[in-house]
Q: What sequence folds into this?
């Protein structure tokens, strides 16, 4: 269709030219004293067109001739840039395939080609980023080859390029890789320093937080690891179950690192509500507080949210968590030396009456009666709970309590039998 239109246009021009020139008797007279020249108008127009075409072709040829050196130079730059890009691809390919010596050599060749290009005053507009990334690749190969001196030198040069040209993204990437290398070398202080040099935005990225968490674990800084794990959970870096498990483990480690009640209370206040509501965390914290000689009422206060979870109709506590809570409460009441809080006593009695078939609650009520010197009621509850207790430790404690109660009644036979049963349930 386009060709047909061209032909129609050409025919139209030819017809118009024939109509104009065929009957055109006009002349153009040139006076050059003492001469006079008469020329046909058609000849003048044709001569003008020919002269224009010749001049245009001559000027284009001259411009092309003048531009030849520049075109040759641009071609050389493009050729060298193409070679540099191929070198970068070779470097990445060698790194991915585990050929680290060749990768380092390819990166060094790229740097040499770029320096040659810069000496010819034909530096690439992205020279700083190119050199920084190439140094990073060379450092990656040196790190894989355990050549720390060369790795650090390439890192220094890369950071210098990124800082000079104000390339924040490249600089953050370099610090992240340097932190990873230091972590691989088990050098926690250097890794922490590299992470601290990150910009504010980069430090909050998931990759940086994961690395910060690993470095904190390497440096045995449980508090920093817990804070980082919270941020990772907020960024959904782990599944909800994994995040909860990880935070629980770190919280337990932090509790175990406390060496006095004040330190433990500080650790507890620094935890958020979700962590303090974890059954394992609360029970371990309460027992640790008792071991350190802390306030008994405070330990019971820490256990109160877990107790409310226990007595809830839709309680989600596992059997192991229920046992740990009962043991923690028992130890707290035992440490109170008979001065049991009446509020807690009412809570336990109410829970036991609402759930009379719950062996653990019945055991706990029997233990409280024992501490209150209600020996008959304590013996009755413990005997009723014993057949339904499933935990070996709880069974052993119940038999020991029955043995103590028998000794209080001067029933040596019953006490001996109870002590034998307690010994039979020992590990």
A:
């Amino acid at each position: 269709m386009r060709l047909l239109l061209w032909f129609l246009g050409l025919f139209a021009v030819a017809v118009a030219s024939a109509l104009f020139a065929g009957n055109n008797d006009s002349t153009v007279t040139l006076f050059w004293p003492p001469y006079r020249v008469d020329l046909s108008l058609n000849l003048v127009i044709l001569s003008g067109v020919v002269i224009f075409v010749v001049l245009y072709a001559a000027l284009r040829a001259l411009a092309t001739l003048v531009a030849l050196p520049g075109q040759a130079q641009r071609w050389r730059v493009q050729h060298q840039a193409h070679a540099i890009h191929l070198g970068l691809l070779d470097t990445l390919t060698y790194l991915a395939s585990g050929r680290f010596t060749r990768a380092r050599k390819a990166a060094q060749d790229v740097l040499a080609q770029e320096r040659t290009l810069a000496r010819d005053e034909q530096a690439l507009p992205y020279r700083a980023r190119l050199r920084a990334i190439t140094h990073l690749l060379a450092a990656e190969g040196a790190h894989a080859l355990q050549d720390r001196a060369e790795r650090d030198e390439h890192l220094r040069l890369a950071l210098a390029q990124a800082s000079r040209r104000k390339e924040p993204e490249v600089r953050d990437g370099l610090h992240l890789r340097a932190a990873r290398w230091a972590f691989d070398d088990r050098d926690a202080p250097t890794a922490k320093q590299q992470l601290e040099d990150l910009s504010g935005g980069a430090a909050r990225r998931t990759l940086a937080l994961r690395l910060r968490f690993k470095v904190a674990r390497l440096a045995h800084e449980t508090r920093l690891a817990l804070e980082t794990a919270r941020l990772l959970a907020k960024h959904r870096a782990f599944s909800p179950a994994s995040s909860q498990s990880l935070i629980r483990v770190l919280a337990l480690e932090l509790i175990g690192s406390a060496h006095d009640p004040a330190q433990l209370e500080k650790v507890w206040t620094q935890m958020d509500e979700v962590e303090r509501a974890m059954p394992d965390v609360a029970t371990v914290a309460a027992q640790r507080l008792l071991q350190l000689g802390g306030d008994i009422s405070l330990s019971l206060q820490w256990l109160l949210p877990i107790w409310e979870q226990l007595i809830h109709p839709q309680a989600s506590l596992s059997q192991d968590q229920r046992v740990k809570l009962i043991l923690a409460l028992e130890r707290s009441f035992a440490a109170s030396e008979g001065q049991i809080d009446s509020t807690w006593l009412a809570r336990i009695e109410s829970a036991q009456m609402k759930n009379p078939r719950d062996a653990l609650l019945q055991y706990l009520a029997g233990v409280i009666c024992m501490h209150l010197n209600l020996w008959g009621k304590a013996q009755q509850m413990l005997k009723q709970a014993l057949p339904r207790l499933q935990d070996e430790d709880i069974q052993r404690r119940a038999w020991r309590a029955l043995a103590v109660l028998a000794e209080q009644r001067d029933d040596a036979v019953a006490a001996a039998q109870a002590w034998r049963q307690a010994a039979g349930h020992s590990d």
About this structure: The two ends are 98 Å apart (CA to CA). Strands lie at 27-32, 35-40. Residues 309 and 315 are 6 Å apart (CA to CA). DSSP finds 21 helices and two strands in the chain.
